[in-house]
Structures are given as structure tokens and as C-alpha cells.
Design goal:
Layout lengths: L4 H11 L6 H43 L2 E5 L7 H10 L3 E16 L2 E10 L1 H6 L1 H4 L2 E4 L10 E5 H7 L6 E6 L4 E2 L2 E2 L2 E11 L4 H4 L2 E5 H7 L8 E6 L5 H4 L4 H4 L3 E5 H4 L1 H39 L1 H9 L4 H32 L1 H12 L6 H4 L10 H27 L3 H5 L3
Parallel strand pairs: 3-10, 5-9
Antiparallel strand pairs: 1-11, 1-12, 2-3, 2-6, 2-11, 4-9, 5-10, 6-9, 7-8
Helix pairs in contact: 1-14, 2-12, 2-14, 2-17, 12-14, 12-17, 14-17
């Protein structure tokens, strides 16, 4: 929308009301702030929800892969043949044999649930989710037959154990005696403590070499499952379709969507609902632009009549008031984007500050799965938010602009 020189001058004059028009300026300022806060809230919340989903997905698939071939009865006897079939499947990037079993861990009278995972040593050292998050000790200390393990940071905290201490793992599947099955209790030295950032994993995970896990659980040469990663997590079902019939009868194929279906469906629904609710906030904000422009038109009725008698056209009046409202919206959108990005950059400090003043733990890892507030900004979403707020702002200007253009100078100036 191109404006002539005098239209730009008048629009600039109406954007900065003079003396006696402080109330109109106040309403316009409130409109700008409302748009700013609405846009900032939408950008921040959607970035946090994107970050939460992405971080949760990365952590979960980093430890559990995109799919697993789960042996029936918890054991996969012919695992080497299945492993070769999986590696030969197009689209599969890695195939990792492992054992996973919930047991009990004990240290100096404290007992906690422990999720024991046995993996080949080379696979443990290749797993960046574990190796890049080691807090104490070293993963290199995990050697088959050394009775050395790595545990999650919160499990170590609950047991009161640290690197160098010994913990006992208690398995209910022990040796059978005339008095029944006796639990199997084996002691292991802690060689490393890691924190992957997912509360449930850090609270329970125990990682050990595959050979030690097979000995502890009396599994012989079998494994529990084979973890698979593919080139595209969203296409995992299509990629692994040729493998499914080859393993049927001795194992089942479970994808990450099936393992975490309820969690990620809930996140998707929550994301849509949140976007809709916060969009309504922006819509309410632009109604302030509508009210401020209506008051401006009423205050400038005489000026509009004079301009009309001097030759200003109806379309000129439309353009002037549409420009005024659009500029308020555009300034609010720009300020909102800046405020949103600042909040995202310093989000952890803001969470800590809110917790300090309220005395409450705003981000509780036990409730939120992740230990820190994540954020990942999607440029496409930011553009959609900005365009949506801009369109709302333009639409809010049409009625006041139409009223201004419809002003009859004869009726206004009759008694002047």
C-alpha cells in the first residue's frame, strides 16, 4: 500500500497524538504492549514445547533407539542371525544387541529400583547420550569381567553412592534350592556416573558390559533385544517393514511411536491447544487497536472533514487509518519477537528467579521428565506467528478506516 507524501505526514501525526489527546496515546500504547506480550508469549511457549518434544525425543531414542526387536519371554536366542538381518535392512544405520531388566540396587542399607542394561563395550562407548554426559569417572572403566558399572546421577544420589563405591544388584531369578528360588545378589563397583537429562532414566539406569549382564541374569549367550536406529525416525515403520516378517515367531518389532505413543500424542494435542489459546490472546490484543482507532477517528472527525473539503479522497482516508493501525501492530510484533527471543535466551535464569520469589520449584524434573527447561525455535513457526498477528492487526483497522472514509464533511462542518 503506497502512500503519498501528505498521507504519510498525516499518518505520522496521528501516530503521535498531540496535547489533549493523551488518553488516545495511552490506549494506542496499551494496544502495542498487548500485541507485544501476545506475540512474545506465543513465541516462547511454542519454542519451549518444540524444545521439550525434541529434547525428549533425542534422549529417548538416544537410549532406546528408533525401534527394538524384542525377544519373546525377554530372551532372544538366535540374536546373531537377527542382528545380521537387521544390519542388512536398507535404511537401518545401527543395530545394537542388549539386555534390559528391572532389578533392585542396594548400598549401605538403601534400596532403589534399578533398570539394568547390558551392552557390548564398543556400543557403550559409541553411545553419545551416555558418554557425552558422564559427570564422574570414566566409561573406559567398564570392561567385561571387571564387575564395574555406570549408573545414573539421581540413582547414585538416592543410594548415597559415588565413583569407587560398591553397590549390590539383587535379581529375583537366582538358583533353585530345596527351599525355593534364592535371589541372586552380586556386588559391582561404580566406575562412572552419568546424567542424560531425563529424570526417569537418571533415577534408575545401570549400564554394564553385556557379558556381565548375561552372568548376573543367568542368560547364557542370549540377549533381550536388539536396538535399531534408522535414517528417518518418522519413517521407521516403512523402513523396517521388510524386517518384521523375518523376525516373526521368535521376536516382535516395536517402534518408538508404539513405546511412547501416549506421551507424544499428549504433547501433540497440548501443542495445538496451546497455540489456539495463545492465538486468542493476540486476537484480544488487536481489539485494543480497533478501539484506539475508533477513538482516534471520533477525535479527528473535524480534521477529517477539513481534509475531505480540501480534496482528500475516501481511499486516502482509508489508507491513512489503515497505516496507523498497522504500524501499531507491526511495532508490537517486532517488540514481541525481540522480547520472546530474550526470554528464550535467558529462560533458565527466569525460571530460577520465579522460583526464588514464589518459593516453589517451577520446573520439577520429577513432573517434567527433563532436568532443565528446553527450547527450540522453529523459524517457520515464528514467521507464521508474525504473519498471523500482522493480518489480525490489518483486519482490525478496516472498520475504523471505513468510518473515517465515510465521514460527510457537510454534516460535520455545518455548524462550524
Amino acid at each position: 500500500m503506497l502512500l503519498s507524501r501528505y498521507e504519510r505526514m498525516i499518518a505520522r501525526r496521528y501516530l503521535l497524538p498531540g496535547r489533549g489527546e493523551a488518553f488516545i496515546a495511552l490506549v494506542a500504547g496499551i494496544s502495542l504492549i498487548a500485541v507485544m506480550l501476545g506475540v512474545a508469549a506465543l513465541v516462547v511457549v511454542m519454542s519451549v514445547m518444540n524444545g521439550f518434544r525434541a529434547e525428549l525425543f533425542d534422549k529417548i531414542t538416544g537410549l532406546n533407539g528408533h525401534a527394538v526387536v524384542q525377544g519373546y519371554g525377554g530372551q532372544l536366542q538366535n540374536w546373531r542371525a537377527v542382528l545380521d538381518e537387521a544390519k542388512a535392512t536398507p535404511g537401518v544405520t545401527t543395530a545394537t544387541p542388549m539386555i534390559e531388566k528391572p532389578l533392585m540396587g542396594s548400598h549401605e542399607g538403601r534400596v532403589e529400583v534399578a533398570l539394568v542394561r547390558g551392552m557390548l563395550v564398543e556400543d557403550i562407548r559409541r553411545n553419545e547420550t551416555i558418554t557425552s554426559n558422564v559427570q564422574l569417572g570414566t566409561i573406559d572403566s567398564l570392561v567385561p569381567g571387571s564387575s564395574t558399572i555406570a549408573i545414573g546421577s539421581r540413582l547414585a544420589q538416592s543410594l548415597g553412592a559415588t565413583v569407587g563405591n560398591e553397590i549390590s544388584l539383587i535379581s529375583p531369578e537366582g538358583h533353585t534350592t530345596p527351599f525355593g528360588t534364592m535371589p541372586r545378589i552380586v556386588s559391582y563397583r561404580i566406575g562412572a556416573i552419568f546424567e542424560v537429562g531425563v529424570y526417569d532414566y537418571d533415577k534408575a539406569f545401570v549400564v554394564m558390559p553385556m557379558e556381565d549382564a548375561q552372568t548376573l541374569l543367568l542368560m547364557g549367550d542370549s540377549v533381550g533385544m536388539i536396538e535399531l536406529n534408522t535414517v528417518d525416525a518418522d519413517r521407521v515403520v516403512d523402513i523396517l517393514a521388510p524386517l518384521a516378517p523375518k523376525v516373526s515367531g521368535e521376536a516382535q518389532l516395536v517402534t518408538w511411536q508404539q513405546m511412547n505413543a501416549q506421551l507424544f500424542e499428549a504433547l501433540a494435542i497440548d501443542r495445538v491447544v496451546t497455540f489456539t489459546v495463545l492465538s486468542i490472546i493476540i486476537l484480544v490484543a488487536v481489539f485494543n487497536i480497533l478501539s484506539s482507532l475508533i477513538m482516534l477517528v471520533r477525535a479527528k472527525t473535524r480534521d477529517i472533514a477539513i481534509l475531505r473539503t480540501m480534496g482528500a479522497t475516501r481511499s486516502s482516508m482509508m489508507r491513512i487509518f489503515v497505516t496507523v493501525g498497522t504500524m501499531i501492530g507491526a511495532l508490537g510484533i517486532g517488540a514481541g519477537l525481540i522480547l520472546g527471543f530474550i526470554f528464550i535466551e535467558f529462560r533458565q535464569g527466569v525460571v530460577g528467579l520465579i522460583g526464588f520469589f514464589t518459593g516453589q520449584q517451577v520446573w520439577d524434573p520429577q513432573m517434567r521428565f527433563l532436568t532443565e527447561l528446553p527450547a527450540r525455535t522453529d523459524p517457520v513457526e515464528v514467521v507464521v506467528i508474525a504473519v498471523m498477528a500482522f493480518v489480525f492487526s490489518v483486519l482490525a483497522t478496516l472498520y475504523p478506516a471505513y468510518k473515517a472514509a465515510s465521514t460527510d464533511p457537510v454534516q460535520v462542518l455545518r455548524y462550524e
